[in-house]
Amino acid sequence: MRHLLLTLVSHITARMLCVRAFLLVSLCVAALCSLQDRQTDFGLRVFSQMADGAAASRGENLAFSPYGVATLLGMVQLGAGGSTRKALRSAMGFSLQERGLSRQQRRQQQSLSAAGGLEASSAVMVERLLGLEAGFRRALLKAFRTAPHQVDFSRTEQATDVINAWVSDRTAGMIPQFLAPGALTDETRLVLLNALHFQGLWKLPFDPKLTQERMFHCSNGSSVPVAMMRLTAAFRYGEFVSSDGLEYLVVEVPYEGDALSMFLVQPFEADVPAGALVAELSSQRIGQWSAELRSVKRRLALPRFSIDSEVNLKAVLTNMGLGEMFNLATADFSRITTEERLSVSAVLQRVKIEVNEEGTKAAAASGAIMFSRMGVEEIALDTPFLFLIQHKATGAVLFMGQVNQPEPY
């Protein structure tokens, strides 16, 4: 049966995207492996948690930026102290507070931006009245070559517009509205941001004249018509077996300039969903693919597709042991400021990707919203409640009741 599987035609590729878009865009850089590998592994673990979530179980497509979330939380690390710092170090497998890693982060971002068609950016938007620790400012400059931008978060609509404009500018307009109305409040103190934009042409473009409608066979048994692109060429190709014994293929499709490429990964068996291979993903495994792929002539049939994914990673990161940083009572971000107690309220990511005969356009924006409560917090009994009247000396409960609909007196 194996010789039948060696030809990449539509009856194989037609299963590639239904459950979720399962692709990796890989930057071919030999240096910076220490930090890069650990960031990649953390990002892949986050993706694995997402792939087990509700959206993936419903068969929805999913696009994600491992680099984006790892870099964003690297910025969060720079401001963390105490047990919050330890939790981030444990969950992520590295800390930018470690000696030498800030320099690696800076060099990595420079290397990414030097690749043709790729831009990586970072920013920190800070409440204009909040005083930041000098050490945090220095750390941001050293690792990300960025300085905080002052924003008036009491004017939430204007602050949202400022952040959305920054993201739009750095994603070539692909993500014009990163933050939805209401995402910021007057309690917001900082928004940490990371943006990626990529536009690349295939090294060997697909001929649009060869694109034809074919059926795409989904893992739930349904079939949908898609525009299937076709290209006959020499591809780097390999066959592998996962630790669970699943056989799968990997084909690498390079972009012009050879600095970046797309790996397409697919199980051989039609009844095995692509998500079954998510646990297989690691920087070491991707390195194995790169080392063992061999050039063979094949006809590749790849659906033209686009994905627009948006997610709040708070639940995922909490499940990974990072719940403390979302709790105002326990989070320690005293390296950012000692004026107010801060915690993270949301970690957001939006990813858009478009793949066609010419190449790929992709953009990702990641943001961590940090807030504080310095004013008097209101306790509003504007929903049904219980009441008890107790004699404190004896503990006797003299009266009690339940108010479901207050009546005037």
UniProtKB/TrEMBL annotation:
<keyword id="KW-0732">Signal</keyword>
<comment type="subunit">
    <text>Forms a heterodimer with TMPRSS7. Interacts with VTN. Binds LRP1B; binding is followed by internalization and degradation. Interacts with PPP1CB. In complex with PLAU/uPA, interacts with PLAUR/uPAR. Interacts with SORL1 and LRP1, either alone or in complex with PLAU; these interactions are abolished in the presence of LRPAP1/RAP. The ternary complex composed of PLAUR-PLAU-PAI1 also interacts with SORL1. Interacts with PLAT/tPA. Also interacts with SORL1, when complexed to PLAT/tPA.</text>
</comment>
<dbReference type="GO" id="GO:0004867">
    <property type="term" value="F:serine-type endopeptidase inhibitor activity"/>
</dbReference>
<dbReference type="InterPro" id="IPR023796">
    <property type="entry name" value="Serpin_dom"/>
</dbReference>
<dbReference type="InterPro" id="IPR000215">
    <property type="entry name" value="Serpin_fam"/>
</dbReference>
<protein>
    <recommendedName>
        <fullName>Plasminogen activator inhibitor 1</fullName>
    </recommendedName>
</protein>
<dbReference type="InterPro" id="IPR042185">
    <property type="entry name" value="Serpin_sf_2"/>
</dbReference>
<feature type="signal peptide">
    <location>
        <begin position="1"/>
        <end position="21"/>
    </location>
</feature>
<dbReference type="Pfam" id="PF00079">
    <property type="entry name" value="Serpin"/>
</dbReference>
<dbReference type="GO" id="GO:0061044">
    <property type="term" value="P:negative regulation of vascular wound healing"/>
</dbReference>
<dbReference type="InterPro" id="IPR036186">
    <property type="entry name" value="Serpin_sf"/>
</dbReference>
<dbReference type="InterPro" id="IPR042178">
    <property type="entry name" value="Serpin_sf_1"/>
</dbReference>
<dbReference type="GO" id="GO:0010757">
    <property type="term" value="P:negative regulation of plasminogen activation"/>
</dbReference>
<comment type="similarity">
    <text>Belongs to the serpin family.</text>
</comment>
<feature type="domain" description="Serpin">
    <location>
        <begin position="44"/>
        <end position="406"/>
    </location>
</feature>
<dbReference type="GO" id="GO:0005615">
    <property type="term" value="C:extracellular space"/>
</dbReference>
